[in-house]
Amino acid sequence: MNMIEAKEITYKYPDGTKALHGVNFNVEKGKIVALLGPNGAGKSTLFLHFNGIIEPSSGQINIANEPLKYSKSALHKARQKVGIVFQNPDDQLFAPTVREDVAFGPMNMGLSGKEVDDRVSNSLEKVGMGGFEDKAPHHLSGGQKKRVAIAGILAMEPQIMVLDEPTSGLDPKGASQILKLLYDLNKEGMTIIISTHDVDMVPIYADKIYIISSGEIIKEGKPHIVFGDVKTIRNANLRLPRIAHLMEILKKEDKLLFSEEYPLTIGEARRSLLEYIDGVKEDK
Ligand SMILES: Nc1ncnc2c1ncn2[C@@H]1O[C@H](COP(=O)(O)OP(=O)(O)OP(=O)(O)O)[C@@H](O)[C@H]1O
Ligand SMILES: [Mg+2]
Fold first, then answer.
1. Domain segments of the chain as ranges
2. Given CB 3.0 to 4.6 Å as the disulfide criterion, which of 54, 67, 195, 203 pairs with 35?
3. Is the pTM of the predicted complex or chain greater than 0.85?
4. Cα of 13 to ligand 1 centre, how many Å?
5. How far is the C-alpha of 282 from the C-alpha of 284, rounded, in Å?
6. Rounded to whole angstroms, how far apart are CA atoms 246 and 266?
7. For domain 2-94+159-239, is the CATH number 2.60.120.10?
8. pLDDT tens-digit profile of 22-73?
């Protein structure tokens, strides 16, 4: 089943900027899907459609096969299913303390005080921000704000979590921690949609990748298919994962002979290289 389906979405901002041109985007239940694209391509604009923060100029959004409606009550329901973590945490954090900020969503869902408290402490713990409950969000560092913003959506336990560049501004350990958390949530059944510029991480977790450029989807598919189309990747001002780039160079220099697909991750490269080394030993 498709949890999110964008059908022929076109969007024009009030100032006349045409940000999306007939975008189709499908996310199956239980998958992790990544959206890659250069600055200004339309990633954030597309994401804001997924729970009705903006309404398409034309086209349709379906959530779990139901067309999204834009009445207040329908939007309230949609936002319990689809949680969006904004690119800029300052657009999301507003309460005087971290605790109140993270509690806002679950409280709005009418949960008991005890349940809200539990969810607040669990979510903050999961993003590594336990102990910051009484701090003012605007006194946090950029990366800390990002984590609290993620905790706020996590606390609502949405079926679908949409994260607009969740790891930008995080230190390497913090970024891995958040990706590991998303990976674990996905294993528990959550459907996850991420926009990112981090092409090295994408093949590790994404089931499917979409590439957007100038408001149009120009490529979609499994990581090996998408990164196999090197020309499209580079034309869209993106790059290959470093590992794949190294393999591309070695192959061009006739140093290594790989079958059709470049390894994209350290794990895949390790396997390919070990197979290659074993092959060389056998030839001797
Ligand atoms: N509020 C707005 N009013 C007018 N134009 C906007 C607005 N927000 C975004 N745009 C324009 O819409 C286009 C898509 O922007 P969007 O923010 O969706 O890109 P993005 O892919 O998220 O980029 P980035 O990687 O920088 O976050 C850009 O041309 C941008 O200038
Ligand atoms: Mg953006």
1. 2-94+159-239, 241-284
2. 195
3. yes
4. 9
5. 5
6. 11
7. no
8. 999 999 999 999 999 999 999 999 999 999 999 999 999 999 999 999 999 9
